[in-house]
Amino acid sequence: MTDGEMADLIVVGLGAAGASAAIDAARAGLDVLVLERASGGGGSTAASGGYLYLGGGTSVQTANGYADSVEDMIAFLTCEMPDPPHDKIRAYCEASVAHFEWLKAQGVPFNTKYFGGKHFEVPSDETLSWTGGEKAHPHVTVARPAPRGHMVAAQGAAGHVLIERLIAAAEGAGVRFAYDANVTDLVTDDGTVTGVRYRSEGAERVATARHGVLLATGGFAMDPAMLAEHLPVMARDDVYVVGGAYADGVGIRLGRSVGGATKHMHAQLITSPLYPPEGYLKGVLVNRDGDRFVAEDSYHARTSQAIVDQPGHVAYLIVDTAMYEPPSFGQQQLIDVWEDFASMERDLGLPEGRLQATVARYNADAAEGRDGAMHKHADWCQPLVVPPFAAVDCSLGKAVFSGFSLGGLATDVDGRVLREDGSAIDRLYAAGATASNLAQGSSSYASGVCLGESTYFARRVAAAVARDAALAAAA
Ligand SMILES: Cc1cc2nc3c(=O)[nH]c(=O)nc-3n(C[C@H](O)[C@H](O)[C@H](O)COP(=O)(O)OP(=O)(O)OC[C@H]3O[C@@H](n4cnc5c(N)ncnc54)[C@H](O)[C@@H]3O)c2cc1C
């Protein structure tokens, strides 16, 4: 065992969360040591799309004429969230404008361009876009819609640019880094977390933290045992788990090892986006009973989770020739085309008459520009009347589904890890995908919430540790 390293704050993991905490803690005058298992930072953040969900009147929203409000953002995020942490939601939304400015000040590039289409990932470099179901039911009934997706300005997936800039800012702030440092245990003294054990260069080492340890090792998508226990759908061979190679849940296990509770471990981001093409939103999505079950213009992961929840995980998208385009990303395959819905439902094995009844009701409503059954926005209400009619297979096991974990350690608004009884473990913090904050499931998610909460709540950890350090110094 090699002892020696000491710091005010030890950050375990150098993704968006670890880097953000390190920057602010070092700027607050703390000596910060980051321990990163890989040979460089990045984690899932580097693989991500680089969207952050921000609003309440950011400079980019304002430049594009959107007068968003904190209250609308709160209402949007709270809608459909299974267990809304109201203090965290309010803190996040109230700080959103300033947090965006903070990201810019770290050198993260954004522009003022706007993408107005319905796409699961903006195909060009526009910063502002609609990344959730802001205009869809039920969110549209509780919050004035506004685009809140803020993508780092880069062509294609932009997460690597985000993390490169954050690491550069951390370096500039004087943070110390140890790479190839695999943290394996927490060190405690009478219930207080005082450091970590890690393996580096073939030796087991100990690093001591004067004021706190932050667990920011990412989620658990890459750990088969945790997937099987908490996210069985994600554990299927035909579902692609995505993320950093070391997103194996170690931070969650470390937190648990000293009494930390977990939350929302069954929450997943699972998706098989139906759009683009946008025209597909005009069709109807039916289950194996021939019934609709979700508004087709919902956020893509909300629709995907609804498919997973259907009997047998079976879902078919039905469109007419006026709406049909080949699927853009090959996630779903065309089954066949039919001249009428009676033969379609027979060949798909749906109960006799059900699909015909579903389409008849939809067509009658859509002809009046409404959707009485699922409340799809009028923009996407169009009767299916131009034969032949196509069925696209959206079923789990047939279409391509991918995802990652959302649950993690229970934390307070400042990232302190909590026990089951709600008490905080002294000097232990968690942020990013290691913690449970605002991302609680596909039905309430919007792209950008994970990176938004990872960066913002990690910064609150830095502020809390700095406050504690100042109090200790004054005592
Ligand atoms: C393909 C993809 C696209 C996504 N797109 C978006 C998006 O556009 N917007 C959004 O909001 N969210 C997105 N997400 C989710 C988002 O990327 C993650 O939630 C976020 O990056 C988590 O950041 P983090 O800092 O918690 O973890 P990570 O970025 O995973 O960083 C954790 C770090 O900890 C290190 N580590 C692990 N174990 C140890 C150990 N034992 N010791 C030391 N270090 C360790 C890892 O090597 C890694 O560098 C996406 C995810 C994926 C996979």
From TrEMBL:
Keyword set, alphabetical order: FAD, Flavoprotein, Oxidoreductase
Cofactor(s) in the UniProt record: FAD
GO MF: oxidoreductase activity
InterPro entries listed in its UniProt record: FAD-dep_OxRdtase_2_FAD-bd (IPR003953), FAD-oxidoreductase_2 (IPR050315), FAD/NAD-bd_sf (IPR036188), Succ_DH/fumarate_Rdtase_cat_sf (IPR027477)
Keyword Oxidoreductase: yes
Positions of transmembrane segments: none
Superkingdom field: Bacteria
Pfam families: FAD_binding_2 (PF00890)
Residue stretches making up the FAD-dependent oxidoreductase 2 FAD-binding domain: 8-440
Keyword Cytoplasm: no
Gene Ontology biological process terms from the UniProt entry: steroid metabolic process
Protein's name in the database: FAD-dependent oxidoreductase
UniProt lineage: Bacteria, Pseudomonadati, Pseudomonadota, Alphaproteobacteria, Sphingomonadales
